[in-house]
Amino acid sequence: MRYKAPRRASEKAVKTVSKSTVSNPSKSSFSTQPKERIKNKSFMNNYRSNDMLAVDSDILNLRNGPGIEYEAIEILKKHALLKLIAIDGEWLQVKVIESGNYGYVNAKYVYKT
């Protein structure tokens, strides 16, 4: 399987506009960042490329893209070792140590070893 460069943002990301509080009410600022990116900003600081991860679920689908709409290419078992390649929102691009396959997993189901 060839390495595929990660995309910057999910195609299905929905942009939301939220008003922030400012000291001068005549000047309001707005954010058009997808909610998930704002919400997960601290999460992104927890992982770095080449970190070793392990599966924290009985089974976990390794997908060929960052979302549940992408095809599962391998079923991973609990404690399977993964090497972090890149972060795409709440999805992590990883290399499976045992099989050598590359794909994406949701960050909720893995932990740093």
From TrEMBL:
UniProt region (Disordered), positions on chain: 1-35
Record-annotated SH3b domain positions: 44-113
InterPro entries: SH3-like_bac-type (IPR003646)
Protein known as: SH3b domain-containing protein
Low complexity composition bias: residue spans: 15-32
Origin superkingdom: Bacteria
Lineage start: Bacteria, Pseudomonadati, Bacteroidota, Flavobacteriia, Flavobacteriales
Organism: Flavobacterium oncorhynchi
